[in-house]
């Protein structure tokens, strides 16, 4: 029934008994029944497992053989729809030799995909134990804790990553894609941003257009776009607490029809932004940034989160700022003031509350981090996308030799050509490339 049911000897030598239990799939045979996943019959497998206890090189060889067989079964299962195929062999391999952080990371990703988050966390911690600089495992653990709402645990993992030089510069700053060498601070002094003074000087006419729009369209925000109404910001909708409402008017780009229609009411606002912050407008037009009017209804809470990268900063110009509306970035809170800018790095953990009695409305502008060289700015989004792709690839494609990878590729191609495996086989082929 598995290593956990094998009795006292198994408890004393769990790695060897895991090998003996799972290794028969590779080195011996299983006699299956309806009540038991299999019974070990290959004497040579048991002998090899015991012998491995005293000879590290032999243990590694056995671990590699188990891993290779687990990889074969994993890919076969992905094609046939068995999400857990091969996992017991991969577990047994790592029980024999747990030196490879990438293997632990992959196994953790597969447990997470199967919904076994505790097992996933165990594997990612094992990856860190094998290699304290293995940053993928820190990222996965942080994401897991954040999804569970345990931000203290996420910060604890990030603290270890920072202290060991593996990733990030601050435990409060946890983007998946982290550009090293950029100045790191949750809050930035507005006076250090060259265009802030001119933007604040334009506040009266910007607010005048906002008030006129609200008087014409009403305070129910029916003519504002809903966060999450496009594929690109579907995740943002999950940040809004139950009963809250986060609406926007996207002033640049083609967010949706509501924003395109509403922005006609803000010609002087747009003229000011294009004159004062042309780089931010260009970023937004390229889909790399945002220039928008953001509104929160009373009682709305935006849950703690970090954005995906640290190569942009965010500016809020307060337009309607009721008492009780506040923003936390890192460990400290601040309140908006009408006509004044707050500048912050939203790759830091941040959250928003509107405990006021009226709408909280700000002009939101995302702009390049000043330390990011101009020559790298055009590449930054592609590097971000590549980093996300690589992390996904390492979560779905196990570590394996070039020869085995080529064998897997040929088998997947054959499955696709035969019309089997469906989208999963096609996706795996794409990740192999």
Automatic annotation (TrEMBL):
PANTHER family: ASPARTYL BETA-HYDROXYLASE, ISOFORM L, ASPARTYL/ASPARAGINYL BETA-HYDROXYLASE. Belongs to the aspartyl/asparaginyl beta-hydroxylase family. InterPro entries: Asp/Arg/Pro-Hydrxlase (IPR007803), ASPH (IPR039038), IPNS-like_sf (IPR027443), TPR-like_helical_dom_sf (IPR011990). Residues 200-370 form the Aspartyl/asparaginy/proline hydroxylase domain. Keywords: Signal. This is Aspartyl/asparaginy/proline hydroxylase domain-containing protein. GO terms for molecular function: peptidyl-aspartic acid 3-dioxygenase activity. Residues 1-26 form the signal peptide. One of its GO terms (cellular component) is endoplasmic reticulum. Pfam families: Asp_Arg_Hydrox (PF05118).
């Amino acid at each position: 029934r598995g290593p956990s049911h094998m009795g006292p000897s198994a408890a004393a030598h769990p790695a060897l008994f895991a090998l003996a239990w799972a290794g028969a799939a590779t080195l011996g045979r299983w006699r299956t029944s309806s009540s038991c996943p299999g019974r070990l019959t290959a004497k040579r497998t048991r002998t090899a497992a015991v012998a491995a206890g005293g000879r590290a090189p032999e243990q590694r060889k056995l671990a590699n053989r188990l891993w290779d067989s687990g990889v074969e079964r994993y890919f076969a299962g992905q094609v046939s729809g068995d999400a857990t195929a091969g996992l017991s062999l991969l577990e047994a391999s790592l029980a024999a030799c747990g030196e490879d952080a990438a293997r632990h990371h992959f196994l953790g990703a597969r447990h997470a995909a199967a919904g076994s988050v505790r097992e996933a966390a165990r594997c990612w911690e094992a990856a860190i134990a094998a290699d304290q600089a293995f940053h993928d495992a820190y990222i996965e653990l942080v994401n897991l804790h954040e999804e569970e709402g345990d931000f203290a645990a996420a910060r604890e993992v990030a603290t270890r990553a920072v202290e060991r030089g593996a990733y990030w510069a601050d435990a409060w700053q946890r983007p998946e894609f982290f550009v090293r060498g950029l100045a790191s601070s949750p809050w930035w002094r507005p006076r250090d941003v060259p265009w802030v003074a001119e933007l604040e000087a334009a506040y009266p006419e910007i607010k005048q257009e906002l008030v006129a729009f609200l008087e014409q369209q009403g305070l129910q925000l029916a003519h504002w776009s809903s966060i999450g109404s496009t594929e690109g910001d579907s995740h943002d909708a999950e940040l809004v607490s139950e009963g809250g409402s986060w609406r926007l008017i996207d002033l640049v780009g083609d967010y949706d029809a509501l924003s395109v229609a509403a922005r006609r009411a803000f010609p002087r606002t747009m003229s000011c932004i294009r004159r004062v912050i042309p780089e931010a407008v260009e970023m937004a037009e390229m889909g790399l940034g945002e220039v928008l009017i953001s509104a929160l209804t009373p009682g709305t809470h935006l849950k703690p989160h970090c954005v995906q990268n640290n190569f942009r900063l965010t500016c809020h110009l307060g337009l309607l700022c009721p008492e009780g509306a506040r923003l936390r970035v890192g460990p400290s809170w601040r309140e908006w003031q009408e006509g004044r800018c707050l500048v912050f790095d939203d790759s830091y953990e941040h959250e928003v509350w509107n405990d006021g009695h009226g709408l909280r409305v700000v002009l939101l502008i995302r702009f390049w981090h000043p330390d990011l060289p101009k020559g790298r700015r055009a590449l930054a989004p592609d590097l971000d996308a590549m980093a996300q792709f690589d992390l996904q690839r390492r979560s779905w494609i196990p570590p394996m030799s070039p020869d085995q990878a080529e064998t897997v590729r040929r088998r997947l191609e054959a499955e696709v050509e035969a019309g089997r495996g469906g989208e999963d086989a096609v996706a795996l082929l794409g990740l192999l490339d």
